[in-house]
UniProtKB/TrEMBL annotation:
Cofactor: FAD
Molecular function terms from GO: oxidoreductase activity
Protein known as: 3-oxosteroid 1-dehydrogenase
Top-level taxonomic group: Bacteria
């Protein structure tokens, strides 16, 4: 990721406004299609609301559910969405969502470092027609944020209200289960120790990155539009080189 310094530099095939899940998914997909992409973000941080959300994706028919042997069908998902949306039901939109949601999971797992985990979350109304107790919700697998290099300081920090000593819990339910059992089970105590150690390591890394970035302030698109920063996607290898 690079920062563009002048608005005259902004030539691209695809201009994405906003760096939340919607914007970055679009940007990554376009980039994987060989297009030159620029993501423009008005905030100091990238990540949008997505960066401090619970991160649970509701994707009926995802491969993780199939691999776990969850009994579910497309017809059941359609029935559920028909009931939940009532008069707002849009058949074309539901079909597109059910066709492409699982493909999106496969795409990101195949083409990027993103991986997903199944969760134990039920549908909001599991007893409604077509609802299920488990299987349709997945969450992003924890990612070692140090791979972002110095850009880690530009990732939107989590909400204080949903963190513990600055650490955000993973919605896969594994975190909560182990933190509650830490004094009762060796496996949970070991899990918690590893989570805390990794959080400490990341915090130290982020502090060091902050100090390094403070020494070289990030440039803006234009002195007249100081609230806009733009990120150009560049190949991963070039990113790694630029961080050395
Ligand atoms: C605490 C919390 C927990 C949540 N948990 C879940 C969950 O578990 N599952 C779920 O599905 N949803 C959840 N949500 C909702 C979910 O986070 C949002 O629906 C989702 O992140 C929206 O993604 P987005 O890409 O559309 O927008 P955002 O992630 O908000 O990204 C939009 C970006 O666009 C930028 N932007 C806006 N206007 C401009 C402009 N003019 N120029 C440049 N940049 C601009 C913004 O600054 C922002 O960075 C949660 C929300 C919250 C607050």
């Amino acid at each position: 990721m690079t920062t563009v310094t002048r608005s005259s530099d902004l030539a691209c095939d695809v201009l994405v406004i906003g760096s939340g899940a919607g914007g970055l998914s679009t940007a990554i997909t376009a980039k994987k299609q060989g297009l030159d992409v620029i993501v423009v973000e008005k905030e100091e941080y990238f990540g949008g609301t997505t960066a401090f959300s619970g991160g649970v994706l509701w994707i009926p028919g995802n491969r993780h559910a199939k691999e776990a042997g969850v009994q579910d069908t497309r017809e059941a998902a359609v029935r559920y969405m028909r009931g939940e949306t009532g008069a707002m039901y849009d058949e074309a939109a539901v079909d597109a969502f059910l066709d492409n949601g699982p493909r999106m999971i496969d795409f990101f797992e195949r083409e990027t470092s993103v991986a997903f985990l199944p969760t134990l979350y039920p549908d909001y109304h599991p007893d409604a027609p077509g609802g299920v107790d488990v299987g349709r919700s997945v969450v992003a697998k924890p990612f070692d944020a140090r791979a972002l290099g110095r850009d880690i300081v530009r990732l939107r920090p989590p909400l204080k209200t949903i963190t513990f000593i600055g650490m955000m819990f993973n919605s896969s339910s594994a975190d909560l289960k182990h933190f509650f059992n830490a004094t009762k089970s060796f496996e949970s105590a070991w899990y918690v120790a590893k989570r805390l150690a990794s959080h400490l390591r990341n915090s130290l890394y982020t502090s060091a990155a902050c100090r390094s970035r403070a020494a070289t302030p990030s440039p803006r698109v234009s002195p007249n539009r100081r609230s806009i920063s733009a990120f150009r996607f560049i190949p991963a290898q070039a990113q790694r080189n630029s961080l050395r």
